[in-house]
Amino acid sequence: MHPWVLSGIGGVLIGLSAVVLMASIGRIAGISGIAGGALPGIVRQGDLGWRLAFIGGLIAAPFLLLIIRGSNGIGAPQVSWPWMIVAGLLIGFGTRLGNGCTSGHGVCGIARLSPRSFAATGVFMVFGISTVFVIRHLLQGGLL
User: Fold this and answer.
1) What is the tens place of the pLDDT at every residue in 63-120?
2) Of 86, 75, 87, 85, which Cα lies nearest the Cα of 128?
3) Where are the domains of the chain?
4) CA 139, CA 135: separation in Å to the nearest integer?
């Protein structure tokens, strides 16, 4: 199946999960907020189950795809572990700074026509595109 078709199906599933979460329990499907809200000392009474189920689904999905297709489509990391750790820390810092992540702002916030989410998603996109350009074209992969 063409990657564009698979990407489209993935987008529909992400949108559907956001709608189901909002319709069923009135929550935004922002991954950083869901994961952060599951941490000890932060989780509210009666809030842990759905958060763990959502996170479990995110973790289980690639394995399910591996069983169904024989490949999860993810492939090996394109960078070394130290770079992945740095990237993860920067992403965590950015989600705290921006009061949300790409799923919360980009999927749910834009769908609700939130001006803050339009601005946050624009910033995410500019920095993501700039990072790929710098690493692939200016550094020519030398640091990876």
Assistant:
1) 888 888 887 677 666 677 888 888 888 888 888 888 888 888 888 899 889 999 999 9
2) 87
3) 3-138
4) 5
pTM assigned to the model: 0.73
Q: Are the beta carbons of 52 and 35 closer than 8 angstroms?
A: no
Give 43's contacts (C-beta < 8 A, 6+ positions apart). 37, 51
- Residue 115 exposure: Cα atoms within 13 Å on the Cβ side: 0
Q: Are 22 and 34 in contact (CB under 8 A)?
A: no
Cα Rg of the chain (Å, integer): 17
Q: What is the DSSP string of the chain?
A: --HHHHHHHHHHHHHHHHHHHHHHH-----HHHHHHTTSTTTPPTT-HHHHHHHHHHHHHHHHHHHHHHS--S--S-SS-HHHHHHHHHHHHHHHHHTTS-IIIIIIIIHHTT-HHHHHHHHHHHHHHHHHHHIIIIISTTTT-
